[in-house]
Amino acid sequence: MPDDAALTHVDSGGAARMVDVTAKDVTARRAVAGGRVTTTAEVVGLLRRDGLPKGDALAVARLAGIMGAKRTPDIVPLCHPIALHGVTVELELGESTVDIVVTTRTADRTGVEMEALTAVAAAGLALIDMVKAVDPAAAIEAVRVLRKEGGKTGEWVRPEDRP
């Protein structure tokens, strides 16, 4: 970190604080985050057929992702509560993976990256809960912001995802 950069979530005495965003403009903001659940080809086959003992794991994961986005300020201590205007959770089945992509939208004074990341994690955890009887080794990997738009910084795209 550069010497002149201040820590935004720490006050002059070193105590954690929530950043005051009152003076920031309300703008349309969008964030996209991704992650992956690694499992087995057997589990993916069961997901394709809705054949898991606990039921429709993909539907549960989608709902968990949406609920996670909505509860982000309850989970991440210094995250601002914002009005979410949209959350989509996309799940793509691979050979032995489930890719999770979440898009969050708002019109507010601060971004929606943490909501997108929390949604990915919640969807992944729900999916693991649904498949653990068949694959106790299932894991979540690579939870990350893929892109964000709006606010002072405008558009940002993860460097390895640029064309």
What's the topology here?
Blueprint (H helix, E strand, L loop, with lengths): L26 E12 L2 H9 L7 H14 L1 H4 L10 E8 L3 E12 L4 H19 L7 E11 L6 E2 L6
Report what the structure shows.
There is one protein chain. By secondary structure, the protein is of the alpha+beta class. The chain has a single domain (27-149), classed as Molybdopterin cofactor biosynthesis C (MoaC) domain (Alpha-Beta Plaits, 2-Layer Sandwich), CATH 3.30.70.640. The protein is built from four helices and five strands. It has a five-stranded antiparallel β-sheet with strand order 2-3-1-4-5.
Ends: how far apart?
28 Å
The overall average pLDDT, rounded, is 90
Structural class based on helices, strands and sheet pairing: alpha+beta
Q: Strand share of the residues?
A: 25-35%
Tell me the radius of gyration.
18 Å
- The parts where pLDDT drops under 50 for at least 5 residues are none
Could you describe the largest sheet, including whether it forms a barrel? 5 strands, antiparallel
Question: What percent of residues adopt helix (DSSP H or I)?
Answer: 25-40%
CATH class: Alpha Beta
- CATH H-tier superfamily: Molybdopterin cofactor biosynthesis C (MoaC) domain
Number of helices: 4
Total E-strand runs: 5
> Would you list the SSEs in sequence order as H and E?
EHHHEEHEE
Strand sequence of the main sheet, in spatial order?
2-3-1-4-5
